[in-house]
Amino acid sequence: MFIGLILFLTSILAMTLSIPDAPFPQGDEIMHIRSIRESLEAGSYALPALSGLPNPYKPPLLFWMGMIFDTIFGVNYLSERLVSFLYGMGTLTLFYIFYLSLSKSVKESKLATLAFGFSFLSLKFFGILMMEGAMVFFTLLYVFLFYKSKIEKNITYVAWGSFLVGFGYLLKGPILHVYISIFLLSYLYIKMIRVRKGKLHISFSYIKEERLTLSLFSLSLIIPLSWICYLYFYSTAGKELLRFFFMTENMGKFYGANQSGLRIWGGWLLYSAPFSIPIILQIWQTVRKKSNHRNQLFTSGFLVFLLFVTIFHLLPNRKDPYYVTPFIPFLFLLPALSNATWETVILSKINRMSILMPYTLILVIAIVLRLPALFGFSLIAIFFTLGFLFQNQKVNANFYQIFLPQLLIVPITMLFLIRPMADPDTAEQLSGLVQKEVCVIAENPWTGMDVQNKLMNYHVTFSLPLTYAESCPVSSTLVVFNDLKLSDEWEKIGSWYRWKQHLNLDLLQIVQALLKRDKIDFQTEVSVWKRKEIK
Fold first, then answer.
1. Phi then psi for 444, rounded to 5 degrees?
2. Domain residues of the chain, as ranges?
């Protein structure tokens, strides 16, 4: 069963890699793909380019890997997303090894790996070109090597882990260094601080005990300092890139509109789904139950680490839910750390009853949207689960009657809800164009980048709605993504509808639209225009 489900997971991810519109998109992916392709076209290998200039938003490692895969396998979505896919497979392998080291049980390690592999985090970020998949890998790698060094009393593991953290800088800057620093701080906090007989005791001797581990962390600076020196001394645009990256891109997160902290807490629930409820119960049991098992130090350290990184991400004004993704694997490690089994976790009363909620919701959605495949699968899952709730069978059979439907919630949603409701493929809608000069008119420049990524054989330019006459003087075709009155020299030749990214509807209007089964309130028209021939 384990091999079959892993192959099923791999096939789901592999199947979505080549689809331009990913089932679970993330806006930054458009920019990353655009940067890779522009860099290849311009021959800008050392400094990836974006819109004709060096890309100032992110360090180059992800773009370098994307360019390598595009060079080997051809320029397409599959090649570029293969980077995240490989990081994902590496993460799942590392997670299995880590869990096996903690639990000493092959069965438990397989169940945990399946649960993590079918989580929303894995099915989203291991199939799109984002830094998050790689960040999950490098964060987990350092913690695993740290654990190995403590178990085997071999400091070499920490040395290698510290050095490899340096590659994280080439992904998203110094944020991985911050995460690992918080992890080391959490570990020291648990060792140094004790409450005995109502009194607080702080022992600084543990800092001396861990001085070699802390000193070796300086190895993580080798790669970042090398790259910074290259930019500063050998690149003409290097100083400006460094200034923009550190001051605008990173510090700017503290100066934008202050977003709700619920976004971060929601990120924990979202990216651990569909196992959010059993994980919350496991955290509660771990905190409430006092234990002296062999992993108690690491268990407490992990919980403090997760609390500290949550607080850290609540500080900036920008609070995107996906900021917590590097730490989601540690939630799935908790049963092994606290000597619990996945059968106990999954068969808890609250989790058994809660599994019906998402499938009931999916069933209602399937009826409203008239999706027969989704209706069928959700109905089967409900009957399968009810069969457990009302029958007295063997515990092992009971476990799989809950575990398998819970495991398949995200894939079923992806394959039978998201894909059938996806926007029409832009490349297919514009496949009949003879003229290769296309101008995209939209409010967001990333819309233009998205069309440019999809129309590889066309020359695509972008324009804001009010400046299209100046920005697109030689374009033979306009693709308009908003309501705009064009001059008389243009005639409409086609259109299609896409889902609105921002709904300007109140709850009553949404309910009325759903009852009418009218999608038009949730969609906006994309129109195609060609320049009239001069008679």
1. -105, 125
2. 1-344, 348-421, 426-531
Q: Where are the alpha helices (DSSP H) in 18-131?
A: 28-42, 61-73, 77-103, 106-117, 120-125
Looking at residue 117, what is its pLDDT?
Answer: 96
The per-residue b/e assignment along 202-217, b for 16 or more CB within 10 angstroms, e otherwise, is eeeebeeebeebeebb
pLDDT tens, position by position, 106-159: 999 999 999 999 999 999 999 999 999 999 999 999 999 999 999 999 999 999
Of 9, 106, 95, which is closest to residue 341 (Cα–Cα)?
106
Work out the mean pLDDT of the chain and round it to a whole number: 88
As a whole-number percent, the residues of the chain with pLDDT over 90 amount to: 54
DSSP 60-90: SHHHHHHHHHHHHH-SSHHHHHHHHHHHHHH
Q: 480: Cβ–Cβ under 8 A, 6 or more apart, which residues?
A: 441, 442, 486, 526, 527, 528, 529
The answer to whether 362 touches 417, Cβ cutoff 8 Å, is yes
For residue 288, the tally of other CB atoms under 10 A from its CB is: 7
Measured between alpha carbons, how far is 55 from 61 in angstroms, rounded to an integer? 12
